[in-house]
Amino acid sequence: MATLKALVVDDASFVRDLVKRTVRQRFPVIETTDAQNGRRAQSLMSRTVFDLILCDWEMPEMSGLELLQWMRQQPQYEKVPFIMITSRGDKDHVVEAVKGGVSEYLGKPFSPEGLSNKIIKVMGRRLKDAMDRSGKSMGGPADAFKESATLLTQKREPAAPASPAPGKPRTGPAASGRPAMSVASVRFADSTLRSVVKDITLTEVRVIAKRDQQFPGILDQAVVDIEVAEDQVARLNGYVHQLQAVEKRQDTDFVSVTIRFVDEDPQKLEDLSRFIARFRIGG
Predict the structure, then answer these.
(1) What 8-state DSSP symbol labels residue 265?
(2) Which domains does the chain carry?
(3) 3-state helix/strand/coil string of 58-90
(4) Which residue in 78, 82, 89, 171 is a FRET match for 50, CA 20 to 30 A apart?
(5) Sequence-separated (6 or more) residues with CB below 8 Å from residue 81
(6) Ramachandran angles phi, psi of 20, nearest 5°
(7) Distance (Å, rounded) from C-alpha 253 to C-alpha 233?
(8) For residues 59 and 72, what is the distance between their CA atoms, to the nearest angstrom?
(9) Each residue of 204-226: pLDDT tens digit?
(10) pTM of the prediction?
């Protein structure tokens, strides 16, 4: 029986479902409620006191940072753990979150183990005592969603990332008849994929990557970093929808990866629209 309450806040329903599934399977003593943005979360928090907040940063109406700053001004939430789960991993944003009173910071994409470890860290003895009273182990069962993706793709053990830490995408000479190719950094929980954008819409992107890299599994979380303007990078959350050999032979050198976007933030859609316009003109 659940004895603790957690609020999951993210504008992408796919991400909210991943977080809730992990919490439910690893920590059955925690009951989860979700909200699609900070404004809705604020409303829920005003009516119910939660023991843990798991929140995205970039959301419409009210950001995660704004929710955190408001929360720390409320007497009942001064010491409640707040985990920021976001694709914004640069030092400036981490410092800003720390100043706002964040308890822990978890980058997207995240693994079930990574999220579980953060929850254990911020909840401490209170969570352990609740689990002990329920007769459950802190380790919890394996995440079925992750297992399914692994079985579908015969995914290898995590290897070192095939590229440097995610940063600003670059442009370079064409490789397939396009005057200039758009290079995307596609981040997964255990690796980063260097790739070239082959096609992109408001709902998905198809990239081509060399086979000698670490590839994800079907349905794995992804963050696609693309340059939408000079010195401006959009970080688009999504999941792996399709993996396909570029050539019709087993020893193909290139693999096509389709990422379905899950963000519902109007600003991100506007940024993506600008990139698509530039991409089409370049083609």
Answers:
(1) -
(2) 4-142 (3.40.50.2300), 171-282 (2.40.10.220)
(3) CCCCCCHHHHHHHHCCCHHHCCCCEEEEECCCC
(4) 89
(5) 51, 52, 53, 103, 104, 122, 123
(6) -65, -40
(7) 29
(8) 19
(9) 999 999 999 999 999 999 999 88
(10) 0.73
